[in-house]
Design a protein that fits this description.
The structure holds two protein chains of two kinds.
Chain A: E1 2-3, H1 4-32, H2 37-54, H3 60-74, H4 79-94, E2 99-100, H5 102-120, H6 130-139, H7 144-156, H8 181-197
Antiparallel strand pairs in A: 1-2
Chain B: H1 11-22, E1 26-29, E2 34-37, E3 47-54, E4 71-77, H2 83-93, E5 99-104, H3 107-122, E6 127-132, H4 152-165, H5 170-182, E7 184-190, E8 210-213, E9 224-227, H6 231-243, E10 252-258, H7 264-280, E11 285-291, E12 301-308, H8 311-318, E13 321-322, E14 327-328
Parallel strand pairs in B: 3-4, 3-5, 5-6, 10-11
Antiparallel strand pairs in B: 1-2, 2-4, 7-8, 7-12, 8-9, 10-12, 13-14
Helix pairs in contact in B: 2-3, 4-5, 4-8, 6-7
Classes of the chains: A mainly alpha, B alpha/beta.
Chain lengths: 198, 330
């Protein structure tokens, strides 16, 4: 079973890996976006870690809703509301339980992913974060490692896609051949989860 | 790339401190990133609030003042502001007559303003929103996030601002704003890419002998790249792209907008060509505005926006305005 401390470790690990990979995310965002995804995610997760450290929430659900709210308040762009909604919705599904199972985490995240799709009006194949989130959540029923692997593969699979949502969509066919930065950062969340589960 | 900055992280905050120093008629909250007219909330008046990524100055903070916006929320460079900023700004400017959010059609702006509208309504502020999507370079289809909001934002903010100044109710101000959006079309051209402070190098490669047609205001490439054209050719291409989608039966407002690094000498020369092609196409020009209003950092290039106006829209356009970036008539 996973307690609040596990979820805090997850968010902290996510912040660390985003910090390490920020330049790469920004590079990915350069040809098809506006070259700020790494900086924006870094700003958001730095704020998340600070908030969680200042007032550690008591339950897994509260960790995720607090983190989500903080992302909405500090990231901006499309990433703020989308990542914020992912975590907030997942946190709400986890409710007030002190501990949750891996399966409960999976269904919480699945609800979060649905909410992201609704908010952005997008679906897998549009070259967005969903292309990493959906396979990641699906593989979560096997293991944390499998989820990280699937999300990473999902992010890579966005390379040949043509973007239909977000700023990259304005490039039309010229968006083909570049990895989606949102899918890349989504894969990092699963990588961080696999790391803390070890 | 040389820039007149300290470090990339403080670019927006530094600019806001400088804006505060230059404009005592505004309250510039650099910490919470909200710019409000000092006399807000104005009794009996609908409030207008806009915002978006920084890097498009004077949009939007430079359009705060009598006759235009009551508040603006600047985000990070090219990144939309967050809902907290808009909720704070809405509370500061609402006189009880409601607040109109003027939102450019970019996914981030749309989502953050949508969340802010819900939160502000929870706090008892009546909110209406208008989405600006005037860029004809983006074909409106299921394959894009829809047309971008660019130069027409200035027309919406000015005309809706005048309507609010006259004491019109929220529904009427909102309807006029929608009419301006429906009557406006834009097309942009880049002669060079822009450089964001965070990245420090141009956001895309544009070889010396080429230009990008249909460019947006975030340094994102446009719909087509060609060998460099003359001002005359660019005017023909841009205006025809607009007129393919808008058939003005009435006179138009013309905005010839610089992207940041193109001098007025060139913009005025370009405006002469725009006027020539409009004359040739039989489109009457009511008013013309030339200058850097909706910029893209240091990008060279320009955009053209046309807005077909009836008598009321023209009267509201001519009404007095007093902001850092636009002022006349008082």
């Amino acid at each position: 079973m996973l307690d609040a401390a596990f979820f805090v470790r997850w968010m902290t690990a996510a912040a660390a890996v985003i910090d390490r990979e920020a330049d790469r995310l920004t590079e990915l965002d350069s040809p098809i976006g506006d070259a700020d995804h790494g900086k924006n995610m870094q700003r958001g997760f730095t704020a998340v870690v600070k908030t969680l450290a200042a007032e550690p929430p008591a339950t897994p659900g509260a960790v995720l809703t607090t983190a989500g709210r903080q992302l909405i308040s500090s990231v901006g762009g499309a990433s703020g509301p989308l990542y914020g909604t992912l975590l907030r919705r997942a946190g709400k599904v986890l409710g007030e339980a002190d501990r949750v199972s891996a399966e409960e985490l999976r269904s919480g995240l699945a609800a979060g992913v649905d909410a992201v799709g609704q908010l952005g009006g997008s679906a897998p194949g549009d070259k967005t974060m969903l292309d990493a989130l959906v396979p990641g959540v699906t593989a979560l029923s096997a293991s944390f490692d499998a989820a990280a692997e699937a999300a990473g593969q999902g992010a890579l699979a966005t390379v040949p896609m043509q973007a239909r949502k977000g700023r990259a969509s304005y490039l039309g066919e010229r968006s083909i051949g570049h990895q989606d930065p949102g899918a890349a950062s989504s894969a990092l969340l699963f990588a961080a989860l696999a790391e803390v589960a070890k | 790339m040389k820039m007149l900055i300290n470090v990339a992280e403080t670019v927006v905050a530094d600019a806001l401190r400088g804006m505060a120093a230059a404009h005592p008629e505004l309250v510039v909250d650099a910490e919470n990133r909200v710019i409000v007219r000092r006399d807000a909330p104005v009794e009996g008046k609908v409030a207008l609030l806009s915002g978006g990524g920084s890097g498009h100055e004077p949009l939007h903070g430079g359009f705060v003042g009598p006759g235009m916006l009551d508040a603006a929320c600047p985000g990070e460079v090219f990144t939309s502001p967050v809902p907290d900023q808009m909720v704070r700004a809405a509370a500061a400017v609402d006189s009880g007559n409601g607040v109109l959010f003027i939102v450019k059609n970019y996914t981030g702006d749309v989502l953050n303003f949508q969340m802010a509208a819900e939160l502000a309504q929870d706090e008892g502020v009546q909110v209406a929103s208008v989405l600006v999507n005037d860029d004809v370079a983006v074909t409106d289809s299921t394959f894009t996030a829809g047309r971008r909001g660019t130069g027409a934002t200035l027309f919406v903010e000015k005309i809706a601002g005048a309507a609010a100044d006259e004491g019109m109710p929220l529904e009427r101000v909102e309807a006029l704003a929608r009419q301006v959006v429906a009557s406006s079309r834009s097309f942009g051209v880049a002669l060079s890419a822009c450089t964001t402070p965070a990245k420090g190098s141009p956001t895309f490669d544009l070889p010396a002998g080429e230009l990008e047609l249909g460019v947006g205001i975030h340094g994102e490439p446009g719909r087509e790249r060609r060998a460099m054209m003359t001002s005359r050719e660019i005017a023909d291409f841009s205006v025809d792209a607009i007129l393919e989608d808008l058939d003005p039966k009435l006179p138009v407002l013309v905005l010839v907008n610089g992207m940041g690094a193109t001098p007025l000498l060139e913009l005025y020369g370009f405006n002469a060509e725009v006027r020539r092609v409009l004359d040739e196409r039989g489109v009457a020009v009511a008013r013309t505005l030339v200058g850097n209003y909706v910029t893209s950092l240091d990008m060279a290039g320009c955009s053209v926006t046309l807005c077909q106006v009836d008598g009321e829209l023209l009267r509201l356009w001519d009404a007095p305005v007093q902001t850092p970036g636009l002022r006349w008539g008082r």
